[in-house]
Amino acid sequence: MTLIAAENIRASYGANMVLRDVSLSVEPGEIVTVVGPNGSGKTTLLKLLIGAERPQSGLITRKSGLRIGYVPQKLHIDPTLPITVERFLRLPGGTTRASCAAALQKAGVPGLSRRQMSALSGGQFQRVLLARALINEPDLLLLDEATQGLDQPGSAAFYIQIEEVRQKTGCAIIIISHELHVVMATSDRVICLNGHVCCEGAPEIVSAAPEYRALFGTGTGGALALYRHEHDHKHDETCAHNNASQVKQTEAAE
Amino acid sequence: MLDDFMTRAALAGVGVALAAAPLGSFVVWRRMAYFGDATAHAAILGVALSLALHISVFAGAVAVALAVALTVTVMTGRGYAMDTLLGVLAHSALALGLVAVSFLSGIRIDLMAYLFGDILAVSRGDLAVIWGGAALVVGLIGWRWSALLTSTISAELAYASGIDPKREQLVLTLSLAVTVAVAIKVVGVLLITAMLIIPAAAARPLSRTPEQMALTAAAIGGLSAFIGLRAAYALDTPAGASIVCVAALVFLATSMTTNLTTKA
Prior knowledge:
The structure holds two protein chains of two kinds. Chain A is α/β, with parallel strands linked by helices. Chain A has helices spanning 42-50, 85-89, 97-106, 122-134, 152-169, 180-183, 203-208, 210-217, 244-253; strands at 4-13, 16-26, 31-35, 57-62, 68-71, 140-144, 172-177, 189-193, 197-201. Chain A folds into two domains: 4-67 and 140-155 and 170-253, Rossmann fold (3-Layer(aba) Sandwich), CATH 3.40.50; 75-137, no CATH class. Chain A has a six-stranded mixed β-sheet with strand order 5-6-7-3-8-9. Chain A has a three-stranded antiparallel β-sheet with strand order 2-1-4. In chain A, helix 3 packs across helix 4. The longest helix of chain A has 18 residues, at 152-169. The two termini of chain A are 35 Å apart. Chain B is mainly α. Chain B has one domain (5-190): Orthogonal Bundle (ABC transporter involved in vitamin B12 uptake, BtuC), CATH 1.10.3470. Chain B contains twelve helices and no strands. Chain B is globular. The N and C termini of chain B lie far apart (49 Å). Chains A and B meet through strand 5 of A and helix 7, helix 8 and helix 11 of B.
């Protein structure tokens, strides 16, 4: 049974169309990664999925009683706000101490509950955010660039933790990222987004797709040599991103 | 007991401190200090209008403070920079209020009493308004506490938990307008933000949770009001300003203790 499905979603800010005809669905237990360059509408898509914004047209259906756990991008808590990890986990209410401790355990950071949020390291902070998302035993976890600000080993460790969480709890996971190379290994399915769904499928298929390479292959120039794919190809003529107006639209969306 | 003007003044000061503590904590956490200032300055226009229309000063001040606060909230959503808007609206409302007051022929009002407060002249009726307003603010913030805290930490987390941060922002805006209106008599429009921010800031180093900070701020605010009044009586100084001075001294003391402990 499908947990969440979006059908032909359109969204825009002013005259600027951010998402057009985007469809996706997530089944129980799946890990789906959404990749796309800056301004490709990833965050907008996520806001639509958690219900923070409404689509201009199209339909989003959630399984009735769907519990969503959300791990935001690096969160800034003002230093004037004193708050312990436990108090943070118990917001906005209805959570017991025992379930906080269990969630911290699942997220790989047991025993932090009495620490101040401001005293945590970057990696600990992201894991506490993960713990908070796990508290109400979600059917679906949403991660928005959850490893921003972590170094490479840090984010690799974080994704291994995610994989473990999936194995233990069986929840489905949507990961939104612009750094595909780390995310890839754990994903069942990758959706390449740039205003619309460029291509979709198993990680190997997407990374070989000309649409994906058009977005990530030539755009980053030499930096990409660090990663495992090479960009010795020309753009496929059918790929929309060769179109100049398309490129402009992408830039405007940023 | 309420026949003594000093008792009434002390009760008024403590009432304002109680409402200002939880609200002031949010003002500090959300960096809304200038927003509080703007709302307070605008209240002078409310005072002038209520004197002209012969309605209660409290009602006029709440109405104008709320109108300005809502205008700022709506217009910042449309791409104006918040501090520019606040500067424009706050000072226009203050200037307009001062001009409007000068047109009130026949009534000679003591503008200083509204700018700096006149806590020693608090009547039984004023006391009822102050405690009524304070109870409303404390009740409102207490009721929405968890939702407010969640949306203060992150709007997205709030949405994901089914909370609408925009609605919570309205709760704060309304509380701010009410607090400003009840505090005019006690500390005056120019020092209201001080009562919001200084006790909360002084409580910060002593607190480990948001709840502790709000309660400690209430204690510090109440104590400052009490000691400030005594000092004003003994030294023959302006009462509202003396209260703020005591709160500032407490802030100095608590911030110095933390600096010492972190260095040690």
